[in-house]
Amino acid sequence: MKIAVTYENGNIFQHFGRTEYFKVYEVEDGKILSSEVISSNGIGHGALAGLLADRDIRTLICGGLGGGALNALTGAGIEVCAGASGDADAAVEAYLKGELTDTGANCDHHGEGHTCGHHEGEDHECCGGHEGEDHECCGGHEEEGEGGGCCGGGGCCGGRQILIEGKNAGKNVKVHYRGTFDDGTQFDSSYDRGEPLAFICGAGMMIRGFDKAVADMEVGQIVDVHLMPEEAYGDRNPEAILEVAIAQLPGSENLKVGDRVYLQNMAGQPFPVTVTAKDDTMITLDANHEMAGKELNFRIELVECED
Questions:
Q1: Which parts of 118-269 are beta strand (E)?
Q2: Of the CATH numbers 3.40.50.720, 3.40.50.300, 1.10.238.10, 3.30.420.130, which one belongs to the domain with range 2-96?
Q3: pTM of this prediction?
């Protein structure tokens, strides 16, 4: 039996239709035998449901998803357990013990309020997108310009436009990596998770500087790269700071500074925000990626490269 989890940096990614990675578990007699991280080779309910079905996955654990996604998955014979959050491995263990609760379709695509998963696993009732704004989902190693057709002279792979040049561009690669800030503090490591990260090189699945570094590597090679914000998660955008009346955001009265929750944009897509300030009547939310404006260092090891 195989179980898939929408995946980002060890945790359950909160929007099924935008997930870039799944962690797939091989399970037998209620125990996890093995696991691997795979990339999603398309965006959209049907494409992702087909990807999972083709890999004989029969159960999906995820955060948020809408009715269309749920219908596509159940139509492909996949059982869905939605509304999960936190550590992916722990969620699978809880599912195997019968302790994970399914919320069903939990993303409203009509701009009304909906329940959004709190970063620590609590739930808060959050409003739709900030009036007049249309924010994209943050999180993951997401790069602008992803997934389209072939255009502008770029090649394509799996329905994604290849955005960079290099001998590995368009190929399925696996890498180990360690990410640190300039002071040496580690913020992420595939070595610590014990498994390499798989993605299509140059397809916009990773931040641009990371992709460019891998594009010309040899299998077995290790490189160190220093990325400025424009090659990573971009500069901080002051327009992504949202000040909202608490009365207009049901559930926000229970939030505190530092909490991370998901709101919904005008297209019905969840996007994460961090509470940065709050008083008796107003709450300030930061929709910038948590890595925005930061210089990042990566040690990257190319483990595998296939056409």
A1: 123-126, 156-157, 160-161, 172-180, 186-189, 197-200, 222-227, 241-245, 260-264
A2: 3.30.420.130
A3: 0.52
